[in-house]
């Protein structure tokens, strides 16, 4: 049996350590939480996707009485970006979450389905997406989805 070690390198930093563009994207994700519709979980999530052209597309979680019919903030933002700017690669994605007025201290972690969709957008354009997970104690930065989704399933896995 072969044992393989999988390494994931991410960075934790504070706002001041981010570039001006990334700070702006994190602020857009925080602002996007205002569009959250979360009467069931009362967990308000915002996301902001930066396109190659610099355009920022916001998204927020949208819930439904039939729970699985709702959608996370990340996918709302990425699908809106794809629908409105189909030729524009996404280069960065920031995510923020709050309960009531308080943003979470720990960086918010995207669910598995959102990680898979982020992976799909990377594959589509062939560009890694810088992911910024906001928390009041620090921002987790991942250069691309791979550290958050090792051994991911991609198009190539379907061809022998
Ligand atoms: N949620 C997101 O929008 N993004 C995440 O990264 C985690 C979870 C939403 C889905 C649901 O509306 C609520 O948060 C509770 O799971």
Protein topology:
Layout (H helix, E strand, L loop, with lengths): L10 E3 L6 H13 L11 E8 L4 E5 L12 H12 L5 E10 L2 E2 L8 H14 L4 E4 L5 E5 L17
Parallel strand pairs: 4-6
Antiparallel strand pairs: 1-7, 2-3, 2-4, 4-5, 6-7
The chain binds tetrahydrodeoxyuridine.
Primary descriptors:
160 residues; binds tetrahydrodeoxyuridine; 24% helix; 7 strands; 23% strand; 7-stranded mixed β-sheet; alpha+beta; Cytidine Deaminase, domain 2
Description:
The structure is a single chain. The chain is α+β, with helices and mostly antiparallel strands and 160 residues long. It has one domain (11-150): Cytidine Deaminase, domain 2, CATH 3.40.140. It has helices at residues 20-32, 73-84, 112-125, and strands at residues 11-13, 44-51, 56-60, 90-99, 102-103, 130-133, 139-143. A hairpin with a 4-residue loop joins strand 2 and strand 3. Bound molecules: tetrahydrodeoxyuridine. Residues 38, 41, 43, 45, 61, 63, 70, 72-74, 108, 110-111, 114 line the site of tetrahydrodeoxyuridine.
């Amino acid at each position: 049996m072969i044992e393989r070690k999988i390494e994931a390198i991410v960075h934790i930093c504070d706002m001041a350590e981010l570039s001006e563009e990334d700070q702006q994207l994190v602020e857009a994700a925080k602002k996007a939480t205002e569009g959250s519709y979360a009467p069931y979980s009362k967990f308000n999530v915002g996301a902001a996707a930066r396109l190659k052209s610099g355009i920022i597309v916001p998204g927020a979680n949208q819930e439904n009485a039939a729970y699985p019919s709702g959608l996370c903030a990340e996918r709302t933002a990425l699908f809106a970006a794809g629908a409105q700017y189909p030729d524009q690669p996404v280069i960065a994605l920031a995510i923020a979450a709050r309960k009531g007025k308080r943003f979470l201290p720990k960086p918010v972690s995207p669910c598995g389905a959102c990680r898979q969709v982020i992976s799909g957008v990377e594959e589509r354009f062939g560009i890694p997406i810088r992911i910024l997970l906001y928390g009041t104690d620090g921002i987790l930065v991942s250069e691309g989805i791979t550290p958050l989704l090792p051994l991911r399933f991609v198009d190539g896995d379907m061809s022998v």
